[in-house]
Specification:
It is built from 17 helices and nine strands. It is 52% helix and 10% strand. Helix 12 (286-305) packs antiparallel against helix 13 and helix 14 (331-344) packs across helix 15. It is α/β, with parallel strands linked by helices and 430 residues long. Strands 1, 2, 3, 4, 5 and 6 form a six-stranded parallel β-sheet that branches. The protein has a three-stranded parallel β-sheet with strand order 7-8-9. It has two domains: 40-285 and 328-423, TIM Barrel (Alpha-Beta Barrel); 286-327. The chain has helices at residues 2-41, 51-59, 85-91, 108-128, 139-147, 167-175, 206-218, 229-238, 262-265, 268-271, 281-284, 286-305, 310-323, 331-344, 372-381, 386-414, 422-429, and strands spanning 44-49, 93-101, 133-135, 151-158, 178-182, 221-223, 244-245, 274-277, 350-352.
Length: 430
C-alpha cells in the first residue's frame, strides 16, 4: 500500500512537472509571437555589426567569395560568422548599421582608404542582394525600406582616426553614406581620449570640439562608444544633437572601461541620446571580464616564455583554457543591463548594439543575429510593455536620427561649413 502511494505521488509530480514545462514553453512561444508582431510594425535597428571588416579581412573584400543566402557557419573560419541572410530574417532585423572599422594601427591615408573600401562593401552588399538590402541615409528611408520588407543598410565609422584630422574628410565620408562616427577606438586620437588609453587631452581638444560641431552641422550621429568619461562629458556639453553609444553596456554589471558610467547615463534624458546595449561577454559579465584579464595575462606569460614559437603559445593557451573554462555570459544578463539603463536613464534612451562579427564570445542565448526576438521576449517576461519593446527595438533610435537631421537643417541655415586651417596643413606637410 505504502509503495503504491509513493508511485502515485511520483506519477503526479512527473505529470505536474511536464505540464509546467509545457505551460512555460507555450508562454515563451506566445511572447515570441508578440515580439514578431511588434517587429512587423517597428524596424528592429542594430547599432553595430562588423561584417564589412570580416569580408575585407577574411575574403579580401570579395562578396562573390561568400554566399550570404546560406548559413555562414558552414564556412571554415576560426571564428564562425554571426551574420547571414537566413538568420537576419529569423531575427527580424529591420535596419543595420554596418560598422566600417579601422584598426588603430592604421592611420593617415591608409585609414581613409580602409574606410572607403568597407563603405564600398556595404554598397556592394545592397547591389548583390537587392531583394534583401537597401541603402538608407535618413530615418524616413529606414521606415520606407522596412515597410517594403527589406533590411535598411546604414554605415557607421568606428574610429575617429579615420578622418585623418580633417573636417573635409569628415564631410566627404558623410556624403559617402556614413551616418555616425565613433570618436575613438581603443587608443586616443589626436583630438579625443579613448576609454582604454592613458588620458592625453582631458577629453576633447579644441579641434575635437570642432569635430562635434561639424558632425552636428552635417547630420552625423556622435557615437560615444569607446571614449573616456571626460570625452563623453565634453561631447554632451557641446553637442546640439542627441548622441548614441552604438555598442556599449553599463558599468553597474561589468566594470569594463568600455561601458557607460551611471553619471553619464543620468545625462542622457536631457540630451535625448540612446545607449545601445552591447552583447560582448566581457562587457556584460564582471566575471567574464575578470576571466578575460587573467587569460590575457597567461597569454603574455606564454609569449614571454616562447617568443619564437607562436604555435606553442597557441597550443598551451588552449590547454590552459581547458582547465580554466570561460564563465561567459547569458541573455538574461544582457537584459539586466537594459533594466539598469532603464532605471537610470529611462525607457526612451535604450537600444540594441550587438557588436556581432566584431566579438568572439557571445552570451548564451544570443549566439547570432537570429536571437534578437529572444532578448525582447525576455524583456516582455520582465514586465516591459509592448510600447517599451517598440522603443528599444527601433523607435528610440529613429527619434534620435530625426532630431539629428532637424538640427543639421537648422545649423546649415546659420553658418557655412567650418574651414580647415591652410597654414596648419602647410606646416604639417613641410
Amino acid at each position: 500500500m505504502h509503495a503504491t502511494f509513493l508511485r502515485s505521488v511520483a506519477v503526479l509530480l512527473l505529470v505536474s512537472t511536464c505540464c509546467f514545462a509545457e505551460d512555460q514553453e507555450n508562454q515563451d512561444e506566445k511572447l515570441l509571437r508578440e515580439v514578431r508582431e511588434i517587429l512587423k510594425k517597428v524596424p528592429l535597428i542594430d547599432g553595430h555589426n562588423d561584417m564589412p571588416w570580416v569580408i575585407r579581412d577574411k575574403f579580401q573584400g570579395h562578396l562573390d567569395k561568400i554566399d550570404l543566402r546560406t548559413d555562414t557557419r558552414r564556412l571554415a573560419l576560426e571564428t564562425p560568422m554571426h551574420t547571414d541572410i537566413p538568420r537576419l530574417r529569423e531575427g527580424g532585423i529591420g535596419a543595420q548599421f554596418w560598422s566600417v572599422y579601422i584598426p588603430v594601427e592604421v592611420t593617415g591615408t591608409a585609414a581613409i582608404r580602409a574606410v572607403l573600401e568597407q563603405i564600398d562593401i556595404v554598397y556592394t552588399l545592397s547591389a548583390t542582394y537587392p531583394d534583401v538590402f537597401e541603402m538608407a541615409y535618413t530615418a524616413q528611408d529606414i521606415e520606407r525600406i522596412h515597410d517594403a520588407h527589406k533590411i535598411a543598410s546604414l554605415i557607421g565609422i568606428e574610429g575617429g582616426h579615420a578622418i585623418d584630422d580633417s573636417l573635409v574628410v569628415l564631410r566627404t565620408l558623410y556624403r559617402a553614406g556614413a551616418r555616425y562616427m565613433t570618436l575613438t577606438h581603443w587608443k586616443n586620437t589626436d583630438w579625443a581620449d579613448a576609454a582604454t588609453s592613458k588620458p592625453e587631452h582631458g577629453g576633447l581638444t579644441e579641434f575635437g570640439k570642432q569635430v562635434i560641431q561639424e558632425m552636428n552641422w552635417i547630420g552625423m550621429l556622435v557615437d560615444l562608444s569607446h571614449v573616456s568619461p571626460d570625452t563623453m562629458n565634453d561631447a554632451l556639453d557641446i553637442t546640439r544633437s542627441p548622441v548614441i553609444f552604438s555598442h556599449s553596456s553599463v558599468q553597474q554589471f561589468s566594470g569594463h572601461p568600455r561601458n557607460v558610467p551611471d553619471d553619464i547615463l543620468k545625462r542622457l534624458p536631457q540630451n535625448g541620446g540612446v545607449v545601445m546595449i552591447n552583447f560582448a561577454t566581457v562587457f556584460v559579465s564582471e566575471e567574464a571580464r575578470q576571466y578575460g584579464a587573467v587569460k590575457a595575462g597567461e597569454e603574455r606569460r606564454l609569449k614571454t616564455l616562447y617568443p619564437e614559437d607562436p604555435e606553442r603559445v597557441k597550443r598551451e593557451l588552449k590547454v590552459w583554457q581547458e582547465t580554466h573554462p570561460d564563465p561567459g555570459a547569458t541573455l538574461e544578463q544582457v537584459a539586466d543591463h537594459m533594466d539598469a539603463a532603464r532605471k537610470t536613464a529611462g525607457i526612451d534612451h535604450i537600444g540594441i548594439g550587438s557588436d556581432f562579427d566584431g566579438i568572439t564570445y557571445t552570451p548564451k542565448g544570443l549566439e547570432d543575429v537570429s536571437r534578437y526576438p529572444a532578448l525582447l521576449a525576455e524583456l516582455l517576461k520582465r514586465g516591459y510593455s509592448k510600447e517599451d519593446i517598440a522603443k528599444i527595438a527601433g523607435l528610440n533610435l529613429l527619434r534620435v536620427l530625426k532630431q539629428c537631421e532637424k538640427t543639421a537643417a537648422q545649423m546649415q541655415k546659420e553658418r557655412p561649413p567650418l574651414q580647415f586651417d591652410l597654414e596648419k596643413l602647410k606646416t604639417s606637410e613641410d
